Structures are given as structure tokens and as C-alpha cells.
């Protein structure tokens, strides 16, 4: 029998304060652990979804002082699970820059933070339906890609809008990532049009498992998110998916040998060639 890993993706509708967010997500994580998951992943903005800037400043904390982050560290240790906080909105610590960080935190089964990743690509878009987003106004982007070691293989870290940048995923896979996390808070128009297609494409291109826990539904700050948390195999097959926006737990079992099988069948990660770029 091959190597397997039981995981769970947590789909949330995160409230607008870290205290309320912890109360919302903790029971779902407990349910995941009770269901046998050894590795649990939560969405982008697990500790806070608040786009109203006049209210954000009152609730954003340093990572070390955020009640949701610290509560989830304690919960991981209590349950004996590995936990990816898909992202926490925390103070970035940037000199002369009061914007926050959109930060993934990988927590081991002792409650220790073993990896951090600040979202590289911020969501600055004008959607066809008239919705306008300027994440860069509130979020200071990171400047480094991250692959972290886990007991089951290497994990590549991304957040939401990063999924539209395949070169990032390729470099994560070439650095040894067998699993790539895509925690997200996708908009409804882009989620409906692109969510599953992008996730499947990134899995096929990298020969890695893509693990995408999502926010879903109408949030306190007025935004709507798409939900549909999804697990995709290295061959591009959707092996688990929620079909709605409601808070829930999505269980899946990963056959980790499938990564080597997919990469042997199509070894595209080893076929890079130098070329002259087109003229712009």
C-alpha cells in the first residue's frame, strides 16, 4: 500500500474580529481532527475579513498578539495536528508602511510556527461587473516564495490571487513541493468563472496536489466570496470538493505516491529551456 495522508480543508465565513473568527473556526478544526485529519488547512483571512479601512485599524494586531493566531497554535498542540492558517491579516512590521501582511502560517503538532509566507501578488483589479479591488492599499506584499517541510513531504505556500501566476507554482514544484496550498477568498464573479479551472491547471502543470480551502458567502463587511473548497490530484482530477459557500469541513485522503507517478509520466518540470523572450 502506498503512502497516504488524511487531510481536511476548512471552509469558513470569517467574521470581522479575530476573537469572533477564532470562535467560528475552532469547532470546524476540532471536527476535522475528530474525523481523522492529520493535516488541516484553513482559508485566506482566517483571523479577519474586514475591508472597511476605518475599522481594520482597530482590530489588526501583531502576529504574536492576535487572539485567533495564538488560539489556533494552542489548538493544534491540543489536537496533535499540523495546521496551516491559510492566511492571517496581521501587522507587517514594515518601516514607514502601516499596511498589513496577508500571511500564511504553518503550525506543527506542538503548536510551533515552522514557516511563514506573505502573499506575493496583491489583488488590484477592476472586474467587468463594476467591482473594484485595491488590495495593495491595505496589504504590503511579500518578496519571497516559500516551500516548507512537513512529515509527509514538502508544502508550497501561496495565497488566493497567487494562483494566476503559474511561474510561482512551477518554482515551488521544482523546489520539491509535493503539495501546494491555495487558501483563498475568491470573489463570486471570478470564482464562478475561473476557480476550478485555475486549480486544476496548476496541479497539472506541477504534478502536485493542490489544496484550496476557501471563504464562502456574505461577510460582515459586505463582500461575498465563492466557497467551493477543492482538492486536486497531481493528474488534475478533482478528488474532493464542496459544492456550496457554507462553513464546513472537506475531508480527503492523498495518495502521496501519485506525485512521483504524475511527474514520471510527464516530466515537464525537467524540460525547461532557455529562449529569447518576445519583443514587447
Notes on the structure:
By secondary structure, the protein is an alpha/beta fold. The chain is 26% helix and 29% strand. It has six helices and 16 strands. The strands form four sheets. Strands 5-4-3-2-1-16 form a six-stranded mixed beta sheet. It has a six-stranded mixed beta sheet with strand order 8-9-10-11-14-15, with helices on one face. Strands 6-7 form a two-stranded antiparallel ribbon. Strand 14 (230-232) and strand 15 (238-241) form a beta hairpin. It is globular, with a radius of gyration of 18 Å.
Which terms would index this structure?
single chain; 280 residues; alpha/beta; six-stranded mixed β-sheet; 6 helices; 26% helix; globular
Secondary structure elements and pairings:
Elements: E1 4-11, H1 18-34, E2 39-41, H2 53-59, H3 67-79, E3 82-91, E4 100-107, E5 113-118, E6 124-126, E7 132-134, E8 146-150, E9 153-157, H4 166-174, E10 177-181, H5 188-206, E11 209-212, E12 216-218, E13 224-226, E14 230-232, E15 238-241, E16 248-255, H6 257-265
Parallel strand pairs: 1-2, 2-3, 9-10, 10-11
Antiparallel strand pairs: 1-16, 3-4, 4-5, 6-7, 8-9, 11-14, 12-13, 14-15
Helix pairs in contact: 1-3
User: What would you call the structural class?
Assistant: alpha/beta
Largest sheet: 6 strands, mixed
Distance between the termini: 52 Å
Give, in order, the helices and strands.
EHEHHEEEEEEEHEHEEEEEEH
Number of strands: 16
Approximately what portion of the residues adopt beta-strand conformation?
A: 25-35%
Radius of gyration, Cα only, in angstroms?
A: 18 Å
Low-confidence stretches: none
Shape descriptor reads: globular
Mean of residue pLDDT?
Answer: 95
Q: State the helical fraction.
A: 25-40%
How many H/I helices?
A: 6
Strand order of the largest sheet: 5-4-3-2-1-16
Oligomer kind = single chain
Amino acid at each position: 500500500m502506498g503512502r497516504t495522508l488524511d487531510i481536511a480543508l476548512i471552509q469558513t465565513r470569517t467574521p470581522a474580529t479575530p476573537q469572533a473568527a477564532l470562535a467560528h473556526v475552532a469547532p470546524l478544526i476540532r471536527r476535522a481532527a475528530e474525523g481523522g485529519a492529520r493535516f488541516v488547512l484553513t482559508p485566506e483571512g482566517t483571523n479577519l475579513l474586514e475591508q472597511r479601512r476605518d475599522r481594520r485599524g482597530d482590530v489588526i494586531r501583531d502576529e504574536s498578539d492576535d487572539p485567533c493566531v495564538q488560539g489556533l497554535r494552542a489548538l493544534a498542540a491540543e489536537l496533535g495536528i499540523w495546521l496551516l492558517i491559510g492566511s492571517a491579516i496581521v501587522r507587517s512590521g514594515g518601516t514607514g508602511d502601516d499596511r498589513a501582511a496577508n500571511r500564511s502560517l504553518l503550525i506543527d503538532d506542538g503548536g510551533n510556527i515552522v514557516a511563514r509566507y506573505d502573499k506575493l501578488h496583491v489583488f488590484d483589479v477592476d472586474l467587468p461587473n463594476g467591482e473594484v479591488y485595491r488590495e495593495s492599499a491595505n496589504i504590503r506584499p511579500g518578496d519571497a516564495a516559500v516551500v516548507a517541510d512537513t512529515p509527509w513531504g514538502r508544502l508550497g505556500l501561496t495565497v488566493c490571487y497567487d494562483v494566476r501566476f503559474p511561474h510561482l507554482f512551477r518554482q515551488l514544484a521544482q523546489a520539491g513541493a509535493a503539495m501546494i496550498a491555495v487558501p483563498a477568498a475568491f470573489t463570486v464573479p471570478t470564482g464562478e468563472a475561473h476557480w476550478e479551472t485555475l486549480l486544476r491547471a496548476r496541479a497539472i502543470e506541477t504534478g502536485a496536489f493542490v489544496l484550496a480551502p476557501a471563504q464562502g458567502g456574505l461577510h460582515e463587511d459586505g463582500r461575498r466570496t465563492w466557497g467551493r473548497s477543492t482538492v486536486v490530484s497531481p493528474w488534475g482530477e478533482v478528488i474532493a470538493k464542496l459544492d456550496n459557500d457554507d462553513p464546513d469541513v472537506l475531508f480527503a485522503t492523498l495518495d502521496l505516491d501519485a506525485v512521483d507517478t504524475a511527474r514520471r509520466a510527464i516530466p515537464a518540470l525537467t524540460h525547461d529551456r532557455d529562449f529569447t523572450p518576445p519583443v514587447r
